[in-house]
Design goal:
3-stranded antiparallel β-sheet, 13 strands
Length: 158
């Protein structure tokens, strides 16, 4: 209230204050699916903003433990070192502030490589039905970081 000589007068005062907390939002949301390769490092990204700075935690679906001794977190991103088949799962990024939380997940598929060997033509079977010059192979492979990885080979008539 303000006091004037002839009486009282009222006024309204509005204060705008910055929020004490804001819900986190993804800047870079986790991708839905990713392929991890053995003997590699796979990075799962999770960039968030909010106020105060959101707390970021990574979990596996069903609250399973992260790969023991083969994972680390850098800049809120989860890095899986030398993933194995047992690491296949959905990994969840959970970010929270006092105002709320946001969660996103990435399904990780792991491709493992077996030991490779070279088949020299001298080792191919030599009979009337299989001439080395006419043998055919079907191979399943992937290209990763400029390297060709063959992980399944079948011999037959294709």
């Amino acid at each position: 209230m303000l006091w004037f000589k002839r009486g009282f007068t009222t006024c309204q005062l509005t204060l705008k204050c910055p929020p004490s907390s804001a819900e986190p939002k993804f800047i870079v949301a986790p991708v839905p699916k990713i392929t991890a390769f053995t003997e590699q490092v796979t990075e799962l990204k999770c960039a968030v903003e909010g106020f105060p700075t959101p707390k970021v935690e990574w979990r596996r679906q069903g609250n399973k433990e992260l790969p023991f001794g083969r994972h680390y977190i850098r800049n809120n991103n989860l890095l899986l070192r030398n993933p194995i088949k047992e690491d296949e799962d959905i990994y969840m990024c959970h970010a929270s502030t006092p105002a709320g939380s946001v969660m996103g997940g990435t399904e990780v598929t792991v491709i493992t490589y077996g030991k490779y060997c070279a088949l020299h033509p001298a080792s191919w079977p030599r009979n009337s039905s299989s001439n080395p010059k006419k043998m055919r192979f079907k191979a399943t492979f992937t290209l990763h970081q400029h390297k060709l990885y063959v992980y399944k080979v079948q011999q037959g008539q294709f």
